[in-house]
Amino acid sequence: MENFIYHRPTKPADAVKAMKDAADGKFLSGGMTLLPTMKQGLAAPSDIIDLGGLGNSGVEVGADKVTVKAGTVHANVATDKGVKKAIPALSALAGGIGDPHVRNRGTIGGSIANNDPAADYPAAVVGLNATVVTSARSVPGDKFFTDIFTTALKDDEIVTAVEFPVPKRAAYVKFPNPASRYAMVGVMVAELKDGSVRVAVTGAGPKVFRVPEMEKALEANFSADAIGGIKVKASGLNSDMHASPEYRAHLVTVLARRAVAAAK
Amino acid sequence: MDTGIGARVRRKEDHRFITGKGQYTDDINLKDQTYAYFVRSPHAHATIKSIKEPEWAPEDGVVAVFTGEHVAEDKIGGLICGWMIHSKDGSPMKAGPHPILAQGKARYVGDHVAVVIAETKEQAKAAAARVDVTYGVLPHVVDVAKATKSKAQIHDVAPDNTVFEWSLGDKAATEAAFQRAHHVTKLDLVNNRLIPNAMEPRAAIGSYDSGSDHYTLYTTSQNPHVARLVISAFHGLAPEHKLRVIAPDVGGGFGSKIFIYAEEVVCVWASKRIGGRPIKWTAERTESFLADAHGRDHVTHAELAMDKDGHILGLKCHTLASMGAYLSTFASCVPTYLYATLLSGQYAIPAIYAEVDAIYTNTAPVDAYRGAGRPEATYLVERIVETAAREMKIDPAEFRRRNFVTSFPHQTPVIMTYDAGDYDASLKKALEIADYKGFPARKAAAAKQGKLRGIGFANYIEACGIAPSAAVGSLGAGVGLWESAEVRVNPVGTIEVLTGSHSHGQGHETTFAQLVSDRLGVDINSVAIVHGDTDKVQFGMGTYGSRSGAVGMSAISKALDKVEAKARKIAAHVMEAAEGDIEFKNGSFSVKGTDKKMAFGEVALAAYVAHKFPTSEIEPGLKETAFYDPSNFTFPAGCHICEVEIDTETGVTEIVSWTAVDDFGTVINPMIVEGQVHGGITQGIGQALTEGCVYDSESGQLLTGSYMDYCMPRATDVPSFKLGFTETKCPSNPLGMKGCGEAGAIAAPAAVMNAMTDALGVKDLAMPASPHTVWKTLQATKMAAE
Amino acid sequence: MSAISMKVNGKAVCGAVEPRTLLVQFLRENLGLTGTHVGCDTSQCGACVVHVNGTAIKSCTALAVACDGAEVTTVEGLAKNGKLHPMQEAFREHHGLQCGFCTPGMLMAAVDLVNRKGKTLDEETIRHELEGNICRCTGYHNIVKAIQAGAENM
After folding, report:
1. Into how many domains does chain B fold?
2. What is the mean pLDDT of residues A47-67?
């Protein structure tokens, strides 16, 4: 990979400043996607601002809310007893990202800021109606993921935490790409405490999306059968050698049904 | 503890690997070494109009840039294909030139166009990106089925991109058999292209010593002696005594490290060009995908003729075999003599006729990959036999039984003479282990869970230890396929065995030592196996085609015969007895009817001290060499039974049971043999369910260029395997061994696909049968039913 | 160049590296610890797995500078005082390796697995936890057996 200037700030303000001063800087928070991308020559930032020095890691579990600090690695979200109890779906999702070694290094902040269309966390953020807290503001989950590999974050804005409201019940079911094991399709289904239902799909489209028809049907009747006949449109879904848009569309329904059945 | 033949001896080589002390090529660094990085073609087919270097600054660290012009200046010969195949019309195969750096034209994405040598790896890579190559893009073709009618003309010497049109068997007799047929089964098959993916990427360090005018090449090779021979004789780099090739620990090969590749030759050649500094190259995984020789890639139409009782009358097929853009080292023999000669399977088929067209495409060269030709043959035979049984409503096990070869030797219509086997025995044992009778109940239980359960057989046969040399020579081989061994007994009775076989995971350091321990009654820890260095081992043919046991160990056995014979003579002199009265047992020489005896080590010492025997009759020392050329191929065979369950909603297939019963003849170390079977099956499952190399036909780009898209089987993709063995000794070598390295990869694809088609109730299903493919098949079946 | 120091296999080490130097390069090239291997470019094969501050990571996807001050254990550090680690013993006993190239990563992943999930591991758990380690030789059968046995002996 190309060389770069390495920064390891210990304060968020310093991180933001380093980014402002950099010609073409990139934040590094785990680096599970960024480093392979750089190794393959697909990215060559002038500066790497490693957020690992911020020490912004840990999970807080309240009665209504689980707050995951941005630097928390997936393994810690997956194994945290409080998270397991409050939002088992979130814990299971984190425990299914990549592989054990990736989970020990990759962070929630890094994952959502990168917004890979096949990443798992976006489904949790949108599906659980989470709020993304940044160095500058709070962004509702629905507004955070704007396009493929693009988020609402400004260039010098850092994710500091993600706040997940504790749902009544939820489950995440993922169909991994057979080669990369990223989500070919992943569906988070959640019934929130106010009775509203969210169905968030990752992997299938250019970015995470919700399925309002399913949500409505589940609000009326939270059972797998309620959505058995609801299909998302194939047009606009991702197409690659592993899955056609039609297959992805089909899987959305299958996985959503399975998620409803598994929700707890 | 028993350490002889048949014992489950723990591997001697393991200690260094589990402690991180293995020495793979990339672990070696030579003083003052430089690094190479290759400029590769981004186009599937293009003329090279110019190659320009920028002005390098000192901080670029560039030592040199070489292109095909420099290669031509030095008159370095091109890469060769060492097996001549003649077309039906008698014309020789059409081998286009394959320079070690492209000359005038690049023929696939990843073709080696130039090399940059720099002070560091990073500098070499960065500089390679700055070498300015101007290409003239030409039409390309990547699909073998379209290549003969393509506008792309890949090699001037090969019109219609055809390398050869070859046939085997009696066409008239086969047609006559089909005329008499009660039922004919027809099948179209694609044997998907695979990328070998040994976990250690290829690597090389070439160095030239001007003081002695001598070259050294460290390389990831399965056969360093053949590499030296080819680099000397064909590339013309240096005579053999001026070139040492070392293949240290090698991290898996599966065929892909048999071949002599451009990169390795470039490193050793260019070292002299840069004044003798060593040049190191280690492939990135992406380069392995682009530029290692790939495997398989056949498109076949096959027909099988039966009488009314399901007896096979004849088989015919026409296969298109992609060769890629160049003929790799052994490419031409894979779809011919390693393929069509096995089309009789385990069956007495009176007439067979096979036509094979070898075709150039703008893809990486295709050559031997675990099984090489035999998986393709087994896939054809076992898929069509299973299909025929289903069409004729005969139980597939019974159909096979009716057609088994039952007496030996058996001459097939396609060259091979099967020397020994008992196919019914392995089938019977496999049916028991797999609980074939219980299958309908398991299928019904799965149906209740909404799953489709299927069962599939593969009764494979393969040919290993290709030999004898005269026979393979008559079929076009450019080399002999014997093996050499030297047994050096040290004065203290410890032993070094120098072998031409090469171990890259097979455990030769253990199994070969077991043979010595067994024969000479010595402690296995006093035996060292030396391989992989042309300065230590005089010559050898290397390891591939499951030959190291049957051929390599037989050579050791022959050398041990000589050691024992000489030791007997010496023992007789020392103990003052007649040679005929000397008995050798459990490592001890004794004189019949007396209590006189000498341990093997004492005789060894006596051989070197040389006080007590006439050196005019018996030379001092104890060291013997043997070159062993087998009298026939060996024919491992067996029966694999696979059971799958398919989730009809998602198309996901789970392999729920695997039974493998193999006949490998004599087994030296069952633990190691089982490991070979497990690994082979998993590669075969990979071919059937997950792995497939994909080139984009529009752009000619390799789409499966990393593990992000090329789907390697993981631990969750395979079950634990149930293994059984039957044994008929191979009569063609002194140890009765047949070979075990490729069996799993040969049997597995057909077993999986027979199980899948059984579960789905379809005739055709393409490999890899990914969830997506299965889902599409389910959709089509549903639509047809509606 | 940045000066970094670490404790590798219990020994204090230091070196000067470029920011882009990966942990695996530092281990192999600067420290000569060539037991840790590189088998891919995309962070999938797992031949490079080492422990950093007690957890398994892929050393091909970590910057050496980011590991400044860390405690690192590589395959070379598993055996203590000339005595093999129980997981090493188990791989040998159960023929859990063939060519040996993926083995260091497998061993480090296996030890990490036991550290996380305990000594009693069923086959399904082990297979699932090997998601990030590819072996081309063994078909995983004996690796699974070895890990199961090694875990019990840890």
Report:
1. 3
2. 96
